[in-house]
Amino acid sequence: xxxxxxxxxxxxxxxxxxxxxxxxxxxxxxxxxxxxxxxxxxxxxxxxxxxxxxxxxxxxxxxxxxxxxxxxxxxxxxxxxxxxxxxxxxxxxxxxx
Amino acid sequence: xxxxxxxxxxxxxxxxxxxxxxxxxxxxxxxxxxxxxxxxxxxxxxxxxxxxxxxxxxxxxxxxxxxxxxxxxxxxxxxxxxxxxxxxxxxxxxxxxxxxxxxxxxxxxxxxxxxxxxxxxxxxxxxxxxxxxxxxxxxxxxxxxxxxxxxxxxxxxxxxxxxxxxxxxxxxxxxxxxxxxxxxxxxxxxxxxxxxxxxxxxxxxxxxxxxxxxxxxxxxxxxxxxxxxxxxxxxxxxxxxxxxxxxxxxxxxxxxxxxxxxxxxxxxxxxxxxxxxxxxxxxxxxxxxxxxxxxxxxxxxxxxxxxxxxxxxxxxxxxxxxxxxxxxxxxxxxxxxxxxxxxxxxxxxxxxxxxxxxxxxxxxxxxxxxxxxxxxxxxxxxxxxxxxxx
Lengths: 97, 390
Fold this sequence. Notes:
- The complex is a heterodimer of chains A (about 100) and B (about 400).
- Chain A has about 100 residues and is of the alpha+beta class.
- Helix content of chain A is about 45%, strand content about 25%.
- Chain A has helices spanning about 1-5, 40-50, 55-65, 70-85, and strands spanning about 10, 20, 25-30, 35-40, 55, 90.
- In chain A, strands 5-1-6 form a three-stranded antiparallel β-sheet. A three-stranded antiparallel β-sheet of chain A has the order 2-3-4.
- The longest helix of chain B has 15 residues, at about 370-385.
- Chain B is globular, with a radius of gyration of 20 Å.
- Mean pLDDT of chain B is about 90; it is low at about 1-20.
- Chains A and B meet through strand 2, strand 3, strand 4 and helix 4 of A and strand 1, helix 2 and strand 7 of B.
- Strand 4 (about 35-40) of chain A pairs antiparallel with strand 1 of chain B.
């Protein structure tokens, strides 16, 4: 999964209902009957994935916003993206490179 | 950086109180995730974010229920005075007004919208509104009598992935009883067909049983029918006066004897066990805190059961009404002590404190409806009487 995460382009499932409440983002998946709570940074990834982006794109954008070690940031974004992908909240957008 | 997700098994939803006090679940429709939704609801309520909105798309209906809370369908629609002094029928919101309002709700923090009526499937605005809700990533629950969920309609609805479910009202276990209440022969069959059809298409369906004088004897059978097909359901025993001020609906209310028989019989498991305590938190509801409703005419209510207009979206932006209206400010400031009949009442811990019933019956949000009081007294008596094993 992490290889796919690292090489693919991703975007959020645009039909899923969501809303931001404070620092959290609530994502509703009516078909799986699940509601997900994304913390602030996962919510930021969700927000950025309104358009297709690669892991590198996400890391580059978020590195400018967060004061964090680059390797650590990349690992955390990878883990989060994997989690979102496992739940089918984000989808492969094609354009693997 | 964690993704918190908690899948839970779909549970049967049964209203212990039997009343839509502030029935978030009717708008949210995600019982399977009730814990995480509950946490979000509490947060929205504490921060006064209108997370849930009931949105009335029409008052038109294709059935004529004896207990309808909207209006007396044998009477002309309410009129408003015009500049010429002539009364003109009130105009329901236009599609353009509703589409714009949906955007306003999204901006205000709304996530869950319940489209309701009248019968919402009769509204030509339904699908344009569903389209816009999908674009805005708003979750939608459709509240319907189910009779128009024919194959074409059902398939069209099922294509919307932002629909969290369909809530369908049923008034009997047999066609004669149900159709006698809706006054439309064949409605019971069409409603059940619609419920099953939606579920086959992968849409969550929740049944809502309204128990009244005419169908109380079928309560057990209604519940059994839902259980046999594994439909989640709620039971509501409170019939309210109508929002147009008429009281013809009250002829369908159960009498005290029926009510007690029901709670000692087929609804015995809904009586809370043992003694309970009432707290400010339990007594308050989500009205005007995390919930509100938009009437067909654009009035903003604290919830769909309480037609106490805090303002009208034709005259004032929704967000201003939500934040500043005196009606909502008053509701948000209420404490138990502000409810003169409830504050000293010993039955309070067993009471649904059904705001809709209280408001429609007494004209006062802090008033009472004797039927609700009686229900509380009965459930308290049953809950606290010695059990055979005691």
